[in-house]
Design a protein that fits this description.
seven-stranded mixed β-sheet, four-stranded antiparallel β-sheet, 11 strands, about 0% helix
């Protein structure tokens, strides 16, 4: 079973950038759907960005134009480049893949100070 480990979170000032990484324990070449989600306390986990094997992307309206999802099959890694960060982007960010069933990483905290 594929395991996912996120990294790259941290504290950044508003307007700054971070790049999140999601390293998989096995090949992601055949995984069609990969995504980044985020969650704040008391709220439901929400989709931030997703990417299919065919290259189709989907972004939450709140991050369009600021965030970019990408994957490197050779490195078995999915990335989320986050630019122009806002305090409302503060959340725990989770990597997710669908291999017939859903697999989640442990999450990485992103905190954006104003």
């Amino acid at each position: 079973q594929v395991r996912l480990v996120e990294s790259g979170g941290g504290l950044v000032q508003a307007g700054g950038s971070l790049r999140l990484s999601c390293a998989a324990s096995a090949s992601i070449f055949s995984i069609n759907y990969m995504g980044w989600y985020r969650q704040v306390p008391g709220k439901q986990r929400e989709l931030v960005a997703s990417l299919t094997n065919g290259g189709s992307t989907n972004y939450a309206d709140s991050v369009k134009g600021r965030f970019t999802i990408s994957r490197d099959n050779a490195k078995k890694t999915v990335y989320l480049q986050m630019n122009s960060l806002k305090p409302e982007d503060t959340a725990v960010y989770y990597c997710h893949v669908n291999v017939g069933f859903g697999i989640w990483g442990q999450g990485t905290q992103v905190t954006v100070s104003s």
